[in-house]
Amino acid sequence: MPTIGEDTLAERYERSMDRVRVITRARYKVEMQWECDLDRETLTKHPELQTFPILEQSPLNTRDSLYRDRTEAMRLHYKIKDGETIQYLDVMSLYPCVCKYFKFPVGHPTVHVGEKWHNIQTMLQKEGLIKCSILPPKHMYHSVPPPRCNNKLLFCLYKT
After folding, report:
1. Which residues cross the membrane (predicted)?
2. Beta partners for residue 152, in sequence order
3. 53 lies in a domain?
4. Is there a domain that residue 38 lies in?
5. What is the pLDDT of residues 70-119, one digit of tens each?
6. What is the percent of the chain with per-residue pLDDT over 90, rounded to a whole number?
7. Domain total in the chain
8. How far apart are CA 22 and CA 19, in angstroms?
9. Taking 50 as the threshold, does the pLDDT of residue 50 lie above it?
10. CA-to-CA dists, residue 97 to 18, 61, 69, 71, 91, angstroms
11. Contact at 8 Å (CB) between 64 and 58?
12. Which residues constitute the domain of residue 118?
């Protein structure tokens, strides 16, 4: 029997239908319901579930908030004018300093959910780490922050 990654959805469906035929031949009653029909029926019976927030129960990993290896030259050549300087800032080198001299969250995280957490000002009043999903603005050259896929930074072209 093939593993899950080696067969197609059509093959899985056929195997499921074969099992149903075997069970019905043994004179058992089989009731089947597609997931989409079940979801539709559940939302009809319980409309409050439409506004219920969906939470991913994944642990908070501090290292996930750190982005590395992102360098790009926005301009390859620039002649400075009088009074201008060109500067370079390495934010990642600040990490050990921040860990030593500034507050750092410890203990188990508190999960906050609800409409009041859609307001950025409410979130900024809290101390600690915030794990959230951010939709990138469409008018920027690079999204801030870039999304990750397989632990690699992904630079998307949103207008294509």
Report:
1. none
2. 149
3. yes
4. yes
5. 556 667 788 889 999 887 766 666 677 777 888 877 777 777 776 667 77
6. 14
7. 1
8. 5
9. yes
10. 63, 19, 19, 22, 11
11. no
12. 33-153
